[in-house]
Amino acid sequence: MMERDIKACFFDIDGTLIDHEGGSVMPQSTKESLCALREKGVKLFVATGRPPTMVDFIEQYFQFDGFVSLNGQLVVLRDGTVLHRMAHNPEDIRRLVEIVKKEKFPCLIIEEHESFYVLDGEAVTQHHRRAGVALPRQYDIGRLEEHPVLQFLVYGLENLPYIACLPHVEPTSAGGHIQDIIPKGGGKEVGIAAAAAHYGIRREEIMVFGDGDNDQRMLRWAGVGVAMGNGSEKARAAADYISIPTGQGGIYHALKHFGVL
To answer: Which residue, 57, 173, 179, 192, is most buried by CB atoms nearer than 10 A?
Structure first.
């Protein structure tokens, strides 16, 4: 395999950086790979569907150069500089709140710095407890003018039809019952492009790693898209290369395959 001139790498968290099949930790080979990439001057970013409040834990493993969170709706450097922010149409959010109150399904509204439930419920509570973060407060629509909503979550596939009337949204998901709802025209690849532009890095100099359905577009978009061996069928189909599973050294294996390390 011809060596690739890679100047930036972007990594999904769950199932990619973190091996949930092996104790929900970052494999040692991944830590060593990240350190080796940094020594080579490669920019290193997380690219996740998680909100910023659920990303902080990754710092115990490695200090990344920045974070593409909320499926690309927010891009922040580690010094706090915001490179990209894409919000939902306010009218969609106003209508969403009305629909949730009428149909009574669990929904989480996510701003840049805080998340809120519309109606209190077990699904939202359990999600936050599993993530080890503080429980959200109830949403006040009066916040909307000064605090844009970047993403919202719908819990349960059976509840997606309720939001079909919202004209400017699209669902995505890493898999499972939680649906991440982003603005049309958003996505991880949009956030990655914003980060790359900041450094003057070209698309073909970018390598991305993912495993979930919500990684499909960034896997197709990047110069090199790597799906983990434990990834979903859709992620594997979208990738340039399918590595071995995360817990078996999938990130290191792909970097060696392409001559990046």
So the answer is: 192
Question: pLDDT digit string (tens) for 179-201?
Answer: 999 999 999 999 999 999 999 99
Phi, psi angle pair for 98, to nearest 5°:
-60, -40
Q: Sheet containing 224-227: which strands, arranged edge to edge?
A: 82-85, 74-77, 66-69, 43-47, 8-11, 206-210, 224-227, 241-242
**CA–CA separation, 62 and 58 (whole Å):** 7
How far apart CA 16 and CA 229 sit, in angstroms, is 10
Distance of CA 181 to the CA centre of its chain: 12
CA atoms within 13 A on the CB side of 136: 29
At 101-128, the pLDDT tens digits run 999 999 999 999 999 999 888 999 999 9
CA 209 to chain centre: 11
For the whole model, what pTM was predicted? 0.94
Q: What value does the mean pLDDT take over residues 152-167?
A: 96
Q: Which of 183, 211, 234 corresponds to the end of one domain?
A: 183
Residue ranges with strand state E in the chain = 8-11, 43-47, 66-69, 74-77, 82-85, 107-110, 115-117, 137-138, 151-155, 169-172, 178-183, 206-210, 224-227, 241-242
Q: What ranges in 136-247 are assigned the alpha helix state H? A: 188-199, 216-221, 233-238
The CATH number of whichever domain residue 130 belongs to comes to 3.30.1240.10
Burial label for 227, CB within 10 Å (0-12, 13-18, 19+), is: buried
